[in-house]
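Reply to dn_fold:

You asked what the input looked like. This is it:
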Amino acid sequence: MNVASPGATALAVVTGSSSGIGRQVAILLARRGFRLILVARRLDRLNRLVADLGPAANARAMVVDLADANATAAAADQLASEATVDVLVNVAGFGVCVPFLEHAGSLDRRLMQVHYFAPAALIRAILPGMLARRSGQIINVASIATKVGPWGHGAYAASKSALVAMTQSLASEHIESGVHFSYVNPGIVQTEFFDHESFASMAATVKRRGISSTAAARRIVSLLDHPRLELCIPRHYRVLDWLYALSPSWAHRLVARSSRPAGREATVASRKSKVASRGVRQS
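and this is what came back:
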């Protein structure tokens, strides 16, 4: 099956579909004629999306907290029982902007669960069927932070880097399988991701430089027409690869300087957010 032009029974799974990029990806896939399984934590938002898509879209909600390993395993088992999954888009994620020593290890583990272990579990459930049919596409949404780790993103960048490395290895292992693997490195996208208080210092930057979730979703869905291993959004972020090849130290200094909050040593601002014991937003 050509996933770019699906038949009436083609099925796509989108995680993080209750808001932001994931929601827009789901809308675009529905317009292409995919049946949809919409995965996220918030039932009310998923039901709203299903209603907005309408009965013709043939979409159903799957409520899963991907930060919960047991719930993720149960969802993976359920997806493995599906007759076919033609496209998997792992979008779900969350972030904070806090220096490494100012948050607890529990946050590190949650980031790794949502950004690496959960996608890995879903891929293990779905990929065998794709390989058997010699058709399908897996798209993992990572982050531009995987290029050069910015200020306050140590655990976040590490978890997304794990997702990138896994995608690259899968593409190597199945290079002639008929299944396509992609990872996406978005930069600043105007979504609820930046609503967390730890990103307060970035508000003006997000407003000025952030692209819309719809624009990001269009680029992601375009991978169905033109598969590639890596996609940067916007394209100009690829300059980081060239800068890093020229001088890793230069690239690091550039990112460190541009990502550090004004006046910081911003110890006071970041300590107020003490995110380890608080909820953080997740799609």
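Residues 105-133 form the longest helix (29 residues).
Hope that clears it up.
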